[in-house]
Amino acid sequence: MSFFDDDENDPLSPPNRPNYGVRPSSSREGSVSGSSSFLDRLRSTVSPPPAHQYSENENDRSRASASIFDEGSTSGRIGASSNLDDDDDDDHGMGSVFGNEEEEEDEEDMNDVKKLGRALMRERGIPDLGGWKGELIDGVFDKLEQQQKMVNTLRSDPQTSEEEHFKLMLVQTEMERVKYLVRSYVRTRLHKIERFAHHITLTPEMHHLLSGAELSHARRYTDLLHTHFQHSALDSLPEWLRKMDDTYGDGLSMVSKPNRNTPVLIYCRKDCGEITLEGGERAALARGTTHLVKYRLVDRWINLGWAEVL
Amino acid sequence: MALPKHLQNGLTPDELTFLAEEETIDIVPLFSMTRVRLLSGIYGPFTPPSAAKVPLWLALSLKRKRKCRIVPPEWLSIDRVQNSLKEERENAESFCSLPRRFIEISKVLLDVAQDDLMQPSSLRSLLKDLREVRQAKIRIGLQSEGVMRGSYLQVTNLTPLELSELKPFLVKAMGIMQSLEPRKEEDEDEEEGGGNYAQ
After folding, report:
1. pTM above 0.90?
2. What is the topology classification, in CATH, of domain B73-181?
3. CATH architecture designation of domain A112-257
4. Is A271 in contact with B150 (Cβ distance < 8 A)?
5. Residue closest to A95 by CA, chosen among B192, B194, B190
6. What's A206's DSSP letter?
7. Which of B8, B154, B157, B170 is the best residue to mutate to test the A interface, defined by the most A CB atoms within 10 Å of its own CB?
8. Alpha helices for chain B (secondary structure H)
9. Start-to-end CA span in chain B (Å)
10. Which CATH number does B21-71 carry?
11. Global ipTM
């Protein structure tokens, strides 16, 4: 085999081989020969059940959430942050910042796997729920599915050479690695969603951060929990003790919310200006520096991707 | 539930190592193979005398099968590490800038690809020294007064792994400090900070 024809003969470059070059859209229908039970399972937990509807929903959702962060207006910002925190009033200076938004060239260059790693780090690092990376996860799923199909086809083909078998092993190793990343990402979110389920259902501003399945899970989980509490204990208590969303005299609420005062570790990929700390002191978030700082003070830069969560 | 307790404080060293294994590294393959297309990109072709760039996990997996030789990254040489160590010792105030994943990468390389490194044992002890000097500095830094005030700490040039060791302690300490502070004007303190943006 010469080097020149490896593009055509390389079994692992799907677009060039007509028999493997299945369009992603058709692969969504799940008509594949039982190829990806993991993906099916994960997908069914991650997204609403009907496969074709799923793609549209997901795209709409990610577009919606993308526009919220990309738009030059502050309306998206306020929508995203009102009720959650108290930084509405400092947004007036941000208009210009949103206007001259440069594309994060680094972020664009990264491959999906790295992006996924970044998304995982971020989700782990922040106390709040980050936006659902629908597009990314979608793309990764499509690619995983394609790879899985290829692996299946090549495996059952007796003509597959030794070298191809070795490649298949590499491909499968990587697929497992990627699946692990996706799982970690989803479970981290799930943890937060269950923890703040009640808060999420009560705050429509947060809904754009969740995927359809996550949102319905949050709702169902809240209902389930409340019904359970009611049946097991609350029903036997006096009426005025039965509420699940009471606030005590000292301002402590029964609905647990993300504590936005939790410090997060950030690495500034761009110059993020100055922030004012509690005592009136100022701290400069210069490019290339790392800080441990309250999430509340830096969340907008994290959302913009200027600051990376560690 | 969804996330076991030990994972809730942030990323564990194992997870950080896993993420570090996505970084690319040069290898010299000892076998030939055409290009291989993976989710993270297309790697190869692998032809024995010439080097190829692959993700670290792939390099390690090939190395374990004795199918390649790993070219250690530039910073992982006795000279460079010695320099960093010297710099680190001389400069008591700040930390010197090292590759972000240097601990994780040097660890896996020392474990798996010892024979590809120059003087692995002295490299290992140098790296250990470097790490200890940095840890000592962190400890001293945390003792100094006023570190916790304002719930802010600049930790430039510390690597994610070092930070993940510190984070649970710091977050907890800051939480306690916060609860001790009087509860006044809590909501107004960032009014000016947000608008003040310098390009």
Report:
1. no
2. Methane Monooxygenase Hydroxylase; Chain G, domain 1 (1.20.58)
3. Up-down Bundle (1.20)
4. no
5. B194
6. G
7. B154
8. 13-20, 56-64, 78-90, 102-112, 120-143, 160-180, 191-195
9. 43
10. 3.40.5.50
11. 0.84
Report the run of H or E that residue A292 belongs to, with start and end: strand A290-294
pLDDT at A3 over 60: no
pLDDT-derived band at B147, boundaries 50, 70, 90: low
At the second CATH level, the architecture of A259-309 is 3-Layer(aba) Sandwich (3.40)
Read off the pLDDT of residues A261-290 as tens digits, 9 standing for 90 and up.
888 888 888 888 888 777 677 788 888 888
Q: Which sequence spans correspond to the domains of chain A?
A: 112-257, 259-309
Give the 3-state secondary structure of B103-132.
Answer: HHHHHHHHHHCHHHCCCHHHHHHHHHHHHH
Best B40, B147, B164, B174 residue to mutate vs chain A (most A CBs within 10 Å): B40
Which of A257, A249, A138 is closest to A196 using CA atoms?
Answer: A257
A213 — phi, psi (to 5°)?
-65, -40
Residue numbers in B near A179 (CB within 8 A): none
- What does the alpha-carbon distance between residue A81 and residue B117 come to, in Å, rounded to a whole number? 51
Please indicate whether, in this complex, the C-beta atoms of A276 and B189 are within 8 angstroms of each other: yes
